[in-house]
Design brief:
This protein is an alpha/beta fold. The protein is 31% helix and 23% strand. The protein has helices spanning 21-30, 49-58, 77-85, 113-132, 183-192, 210-219, 242-255, 271-283, 323-340, 353-356, 388-393; strands at 10-15, 34-38, 42-47, 64-73, 98-106, 137-138, 145-152, 155-161, 201-203, 264-268, 291-294, 309-312, 345-350, 365-371, 374-382. An eight-stranded mixed beta sheet has the order 2-3-1-4-8-7-5-6. The protein has a seven-stranded mixed beta sheet with strand order 11-10-9-12-13-15-14, with helices on one face. The longest helix is centred in the first third of the chain and has 20 residues, at 113-132.
């Protein structure tokens, strides 16, 4: 661990996607956080500045790490402006810095998040102008300081966003013209499957390879934040500790394992997707840890060795008229799992629950998740060697 320069503990909030809250809480706990509350799409926790830096580097299922610093009741715009103006903003922003505000408003008298963000910005700028004659500028694309305002039932919480660019943007994805799982969801599915980074992992419908890439990061003990593009926002904070950050980052770089820890295998029927998967895996520097091949899912089979996990995110068939095609595909997937992967645990992540019935296997777990706006399930199937009856007799 980094050479500890302990700051006083403070509260933080890590945001995530629906269904990944418990996984994120476990990640934070493993880093030494004190978990205060597991909420919906968020985990509240406490820790010191070192933990703040480490959470940004190591959390695979976090979108942002927020640091709340002020709260008040604001039933109207006059109160919001007044209470915002009572905060000493020089503690958080320098006049020569840029800033941006993201507002999320729920069940409050002030309904429009853009208006709330604008009013908050006005109060901050007016304070600087009145006190110093100077004012920080707004930059919505790449600000030095990112502020987050959460307003629910007229209760306002203001936070510093320590992350900057969303943590799901690892920086290894080379093209965005396909719609794969985002990196957080791919990592979350692997962690929900209790994959230990040691067992064989097979993805026979790997697309652009996001599941495989995230699996290799887990297996080789690589901090995803090492791929973060540009600065983390905490690097622009007034209390940023450069020496501590250098130490935390060096520890993360040295934690990487150079020898392959697991057999990670992916295939897809599309040569174009396999080319894209190779580009992404290579961009992450993981080409030594992932095997790729062009292969139809009906021809997929377990590699030699001990059984592991087979995981896939097949198409959902969102276009009209694809029902028959999806039914046939999911039946083929089921046939492949039964014949090609005895002894494996299989996981199918899908937004087409009707077609999933054609797999022809009984799911032992059904975990609700979302892929963007699509209501999905992570379905677990236990693929017994021989008959299920023979397994139970053993």
């Amino acid at each position: 661990m980094a050479h500890s320069r302990r700051s006083a503990p403070f509260y933080m909030t890590a945001t995530t996607q629906f269904g990944l809250e418990e996984v994120l809480a476990e990640e934070l706990h493993d880093l030494g956080a004190t978990i205060e509350k597991v909420g919906q799409r968020a985990v509240e926790f406490s820790g010191d500045m070192q933990l703040c830096y480490e959470a940004n580097l190591w959390c695979r299922t976090a979108i942002r790490i927020l640091r709340p610093f002020a709260g008040f009741y604001a039933p109207d715009e006059k109160t919001l402006y007044r209470e915002t103006g009572r905060i000493n903003w020089a503690d958080y922003i320098r006049p020569d810095q840029t800033f941006a505000i993201t507002a999320v408003v729920n069940r409050s008298n002030l309904e429009h998040s853009l208006f709330v963000a604008q009013l908050t910005k006005d109060a901050i700028v007016d304070q600087f102008r009145n006190r110093t004659g100077e004012r920080p500028s707004v930059d919505v694309k790449n600000p030095d300081i990112r502020l987050h305002l959460h307003m629910i039932e007229n209760e306002v919480v203001l936070s510093l966003d320590s992350s900057g660019e969303s943590l799901h943007r690892r920086g290894y994805r080379q093209q965005t013209n396909v719609a794969p799982l985002n990196e957080i969801l791919a990592a979350g599915i692997l962690l929900l499957a209790d994959w230990d980074g040691r067992k064989t992992l097979v993805d026979p419908m790997c697309g652009s390879g996001t599941i495989l890439t995230e699996a290799a990061l887990i297996s080789q003990r690589i901090a995803p934040g090492l791929y973060h593009q540009g600065k983390f926002s905490f690097e622009n904070w007034p209390d940023f500790d450069q020496a501590l950050w250098d130490s935390v980052r060096l520890d993360a770089e040295q934690a990487r394992l150079d020898e392959p820890q697991a057999l990670i295998v992916g295939s897809d029927i599309s040569p174009e997707y396999i080319d894209l998967a190779r580009e992404n895996v290579s961009a992450a520097g993981l080409e030594d840890f992932v095997r790729l091949a062009v292969r139809d899912v009906k021809d997929a089979a377990a590699p030699k060795g001990e059984p592991g996990i087979v995981m896939m995110n097949p198409p959902y068939g969102e276009r009209i008229g694809e029902e028959t095609e999806m039914d046939a595909l999911y039946k083929t997937i089921g046939d492949t799992l039964k014949s090609g992967f005895p002894g494996y645990d299989a996981y199918i992540f899908t937004g087409n629950l009707e077609a999933a019935k054609r797999v022809g296997l009984k799911a032992s777990r059904r975990i609700p998740l979302f892929n963007g706006p699509i209501d999905c399930r992570l379905l677990k199937y236990e693929l017994y060697q021989g008959s299920r009856r023979a397994k139970s007799v053993e």
